[in-house]
């Protein structure tokens, strides 16, 4: 049985999972429990764990939303441990897209699943190296977005409705509630892509998302056939649409993937080292966490990481 080192975000989901937290604390396999105190704290804690833990039975358990999971993943990788510490997860956030894609269910189901898990599995993790404003390397497990989806995330994270909906276990609806407002405020932009030997210029991009899992924005099935364990990432680009075209496409988006047949959507499998350039100031998001509005000059790669799922 593994020894769990817990990194818990007590603010995730507006503190609506007190019963699950109490049950988790009762596990006799908890070796250490730390609550985060500020944004970025989870990454700092995970990095320290990666550098100091030598126990071969250790598993880091992240409890929070997709943003918490992203921070912990980044901290563990940045710790540069020769034997990576496996990462487990209980979702207590608003969108919980990773839990949905990994078939973990709600927090109570994920806890039951955690108790029954006996081994790790390797999942695909994206790497974003930004040579532009950020001058940094970050990792993501859900998706990386520029443009419309990032605008939706930004508005949802700032919306007072998010906290109210979280209290009722409906936090994912905050993304749907802000979609229309984001549509009218988001402009199209130029993007260039160097993918292997192929150069492509997209003059009127509206949504640019890199993903290897089905969901974003609290359960919207952008790429239904995607698989977290599949090596590689896809780039999904949507053109700027009229409002009626957008509504038609959005309705299809909520169904079975038929939206991918639209001439307004382009799907491109990315090769290692693919380069994406956006020169206009645009909103960005990584695993549901807002990036400052910026230009982007990105190099994309991918790796595997052990998850205790």
UniProtKB/TrEMBL annotation:
Similarity comment: Belongs to the diacylglycerol/lipid kinase family.
Keywords noted in UniProt: ATP-binding, Kinase, Lipid biosynthesis, Lipid metabolism, Nucleotide-binding, Phospholipid biosynthesis, Phospholipid metabolism, Transferase
Reported cofactor(s): Mg(2+)
A family per Pfam: DAGK_cat
Lineage: Bacteria, Bacillati, Bacillota, Bacilli, Lactobacillales
Domain of life: Bacteria
UniProt-listed InterPro entries: ATP-NAD_kinase_N, Diacylglycerol/lipid_kinase, Diacylglycerol_kinase_cat_dom, Lipid_Phosphate_FormReg, NAD/diacylglycerol_kinase_sf, YegS/DAGK_C
Species in which this protein is naturally found: Leuconostoc holzapfelii
SMART domains registered for this protein in UniProt: DAGKc
SUPFAM superfamilies cross-referenced by the UniProt entry: NAD kinase/diacylglycerol kinase-like (SSF111331)
MF terms in GO: kinase activity
DAGKc domain ranges (all copies): 1-132
Name of the protein: YegS/Rv2252/BmrU family lipid kinase
